[in-house]
Amino acid sequence: MEARIARLESDVAHLRTDVADIKVDLRSLRDKTDTIYVKLVENVDGAENRLDSKIESSTVRLNDKIESSTARLDGRINTLDEKFDRLKDSIASAKVWALALYIALAAAMLGTMARGFGWI
User: Fold this and answer.
1) What span, in angstroms and rounded, lies between the C-alpha atoms of 30 and 18?
2) pTM of the model
């Protein structure tokens, strides 16, 4: 029986040394993962800052392009407004001319009718 107990004690001693080795390995693994995590966080922060600056510069360039396009479109719209105003004016003057021609045609027809019926 003592042999069995001695054997169990030696096995427990081996288990204790194995557990101690595992603890040491886990501590070193934890230290390594902590350093890797710190490096990863630094890399992510650096990448985030670089991306933010790129996005800001792209936004500034896009805003400039949009503003220049808007200015060009405003100029074209103003030109079209001027053309429409001129077209309205020419249509208005054409209406006056058409009315005058209709009156002249009516007068000529009435004159011809008066001459034909002997009123004049």
Assistant:
1) 18
2) 0.47
